[in-house]
Request: fold
Amino acid sequence: MKRLLHSGPLLLLLASLIGCTGAPPPALRTRHAPPPPFPQQAPFKKVFIIVFENADAADALRQPSFRKLAGQGALLTAFSWEGRPSQPNYLALTSGSTHGVSANRNVTLDVRHIGNLLEEHGRSWKSYAEDYPGNCFLGAESPAENSHYVRKHEPFLSYKNVQSVPERCRRVVGLAELDADIVASTLPDFSLFIPNNQHNGHKPKDVAFADNWFGKEFVEKRLKNAMFMDGMLFVVTFDESDKSASAPIYTVLYGAGVQGGATSDFPYDHYSLLRTVEEAFGLGTLGKEDDKAVPIGGIWEQ
Reply:
């Protein structure tokens, strides 16, 4: 086993878990603060972010699919979150602020978001929400039988300038449209994927259930698809920990430009992830917490 440059608990856990499988451990490398700057030229063409629910990083790393991806991609070992319950974290990721939201009830926010910046710079975006009924449905949950869609996890439908502009509202779509876009090579520059309220690991399910779904639906079905991964930065994160407020959440970057097996112990958060997208596409910022956030550096291929 290669010597770890940093012996933080998450790195030790990852190394021991991968080691016990009999597979060779990844070359773990840690970048200490301050991290290197984001590359002047983005090493990827598209970004796809998927958000899971309510687990800390240690628990996620005990699951086979999440653990495997962490070894192949770049693991951010000190990634923090903004608050409880779920909804504020999704707002932070997409609009640079929680906007004072501290509950999961439906809200309508007259604020700008990453979609606005992308549009203003000629870039495309979509949010794929599993079990979403479509047609700009704004209810708290889907009325369809056996559906597990909930609006509180789909942040774009909380923005007034999405609700009131049909063209934007049509950019929130269901799971079926993802595979259609892959086949047609029409994936947008920025994608946010929201699993339904079972596949995301939300109670009464758990992170093991989410990992099993993720392994079948993404690791096997999409991450091995060259049409999906061409030029793609694929990001897996969680909304919050179900334990203490100081527990980091699992966040891994994988794909184009990522240094496989890299790690960083810099205290990144959802604002940092948003700022990384802004930097990569030359969008400027929303002037909120994203403006002060540090874009993710030190995990990119040279």
